[in-house]
Amino acid sequence: MSPDGNLEILMAAYQGGDFDAATMLIEQLSPQLHRFFVGQLASRKDADDLLQETWLLIHKVRHTYRAGEPVMPWFYGIARHVRVDHYRKTSRVALYEEQVEAPSELPAPMPETTSSTAEMAELLAPLPESQREVILMLKVEGMSLDEVARATSSTVGSVKQKAHRGYERLRERLTAMGLSQVRGGGLS
Amino acid sequence: MKEREIDELLARVAKDAPAVSPALLESIAGSIKLSMRPVRPMLPAWLLTAGLILIAAAVALAGAARAGLYGIERLTAFERGLIFPALVLLLWAAAAEFVASMVPGSRRRIHPGVLLAISCLALMGIFGGVFRDYHTTHFVSAGIACLVAGLAHAIPVAFLSWLLLRRGFAVNPVAAGAVAGTLAGLAGVTMLELHCPNFQLLHILVWHTAVLPVAAAAGALLAWALQLRAGFRYR
Fold first, then answer.
1. Are residues B102 and B149 in the same domain?
2. What's the complex ipTM?
3. Which of A82, A135, B37, B235 has the most other CB atoms within 10 Å of its CB?
4. B34 close to A (CB below 8 A)
């Protein structure tokens, strides 16, 4: 059975109120969704929060999944909505919040990013958001063009164009950085 | 640098991405456990699309019948054969797109802006080919009356459509609002074509067609305002 077929069965069971199926879905899909957020935000803490928020929303709107439809675009469509919503809210909060200088006696905060999250973020940093998410879904998560088009509420043609432009930018950046440096590990 | 090399690099970076903490997964599972119960999946897309077309047609027909079916009575069979099938086709496209916008991960065939543009241009093309009266008697007063009547019929269509799709979830509320507005606007135009006996070309081109962009803009604006309100409430 294909992985997507397995997910479809789990989704049907989840809609039927099976908690074990929900747990299996959470375990199977969370690493992918977490990586999707990490690739866009580079902060582990933010990615954790977004993952939690995404699952709460998935649970709330689980009735909108229809048997026979591809599962991954449904999950990624919701994850993308949560990310966009989060970005909008944090921008709004930042606009209203006063900048307060941190007292000097407080200890320095623990770094939120690990080297691999920073590496992924740095690699994809020069790309606009729309190209970054398409590259992440297509090349990192291995979704098909049709699935990415469904997840991003766009057409296959538009996804192809974004992926092509994203690759061009990545190629320019990596060539400028020097391929040997990249291959040797460590992007900067 | 070749595409394959970029692929390999992305795969390597992805492989090294940090694992999700088991405690977080447990916490997620725990947070949904209490509200776990069976849910009824949404109706099939074709059924929802048919429902939306039925709502639009019923409201347009009822409104025109109440105000008088003067427009359709004056139209020739050829003109009816051009205008109404085109309206049904556009209604179907808008209804299908509205359903898709309310179900995450649905296949999208057309961008909301393109749908609106195509609808306006198609109707203007048909009106331009059918009507030959170039007078502009009472252009503004008669036009505003038609625009208001069209929009007044778009409102119940938008409301009933929302009722039908209220269990859905729009991943892009503004786009969904624009598509809903386009659908409601098409119902308004249908009502005007059934009712309005004013066949002056400019009147129909400007005021009848204007129902579409005004309704679509109102739908998008309303969705944006609701989204903003929800965001502030969330804070």
1. yes
2. 0.87
3. A135
4. no
